[in-house]
Amino acid sequence: MVRENTRFRAILRTVLRWGGRLLALIVIIVIGLVIADSLHQKQCRGGASHKGESFEFMGERLTFLNTGQETNGEILEIDVSFKPTAETNILKWRDAHVHPYQEERFKVISGSVRFRIGDREQILTAGQSISGPPNIPHTWNSADGEEIQMLAELRPALHTDAAAASFMHAGSTQGKMSLLQALVIMSEFDGLAYPTKTPPIVMQTFVKVLAPIGRLLGYKAC
Predict the structure, then answer these.
(1) For 209, how many CA atoms within 13 A lie in the half-sphere containing its CB?
(2) pTM check: above 0.70
(3) Exposed (0-12), middle (13-18) or buried (19+): which is 104, by Cβ within 10 Å?
(4) What span, in angstroms and rounded, lies between the C-alpha atoms of 175 and 132?
(5) How far is the C-alpha of 48 from the C-alpha of 50, rounded, in Å?
(6) Per-residue pLDDT reduced to its tens digit, 75-108
(7) Which long-range contacts (CB under 8 A, 24 or more apart) does 4-7 make?
(8) Residues 10-69: pLDDT tens digits?
């Protein structure tokens, strides 16, 4: 019995020793990746304006009317049109997200739009407006399942138009965007919206740790 206890304690000490070494190695790797991401030189923020460009996904069409280049970085103006199906309208309502540094304003041009901003729900029709402050979860969809059109404004503009162009280009060329590709783009453009299903600290950790790996594997933001 004594021998068995001694052997068990020896095995346990060995496991703990190697487990501690493995944990230390993981911590060192994570710290190295975070530092690598912090030192990465962002290269996709300049270039041509995306004014007039349109992108479409799941029945939602976004057209950039004015970008930060035309408004001295103050406003990104977007024409938003949405032709829902029963499925995409439900998915749109579930697509709550947060803009950490931007206010998002909506003005309904046509149709009936259901908004949820924080804990408040409201239905707006043509001519009515609503605003979502930074760091407040919000989402919207068609209140009656019919087509809608809105004018959306993001203040400040940041580089949201360039980020959207990068996402759409990656999606169109790759067919289905990988997680590493998405995180590389998010690392390139600070302050992008993120889904409320993911806690901010988790999203930031994913970006800081996995984006450098994505770049090493050849993924590019632009």
Answers:
(1) 12
(2) yes
(3) buried
(4) 32
(5) 6
(6) 999 999 999 999 999 999 998 999 999 999 999 9
(7) none
(8) 777 777 788 778 888 877 887 888 787 877 788 777 667 889 999 888 899 999 999 998
